[in-house]
Amino acid sequence: QVQLVESGGTLVQPGGSLRLSCAASGFTFSSYALSWHRQAPGKERELVARISNTAGTTTYVGSVKGRFTISRDNAKNTVYLQMNSLKPEDTAVYYCAAVWGIVTYWGQGTQVTVSS
User: Fold this and answer.
1) CB under 8 Å to 72, separation ≥6 — which residues?
2) Which residues of the chain have pLDDT under 50?
3) What is the CA radius of gyration of the chain?
């Protein structure tokens, strides 16, 4: 059974930091590219960051470049999103996804709220 379970979302003040984790099981984790997406209320889901299966390539949406870092630990079947200098506009439900060819698995999401 394929599972992606996000954790680490919470309420944080502007300027603060959070690390999201996504633990995977049920598939060959090291073969999949991994990504983090987010969806704010009333908005479409957007890609935030992506990391290749070998961790050799990372990409970020412009609004998070220099503030967020995606990483993966294939030994632990886990992908992370380190988020620094958080802004209120980063408030959203954050989802992780695993992609291999036309196959995509999604997690259930974790809420991140940036507010004073």
Assistant:
1) 34, 51, 55, 78, 79, 80
2) none
3) 13
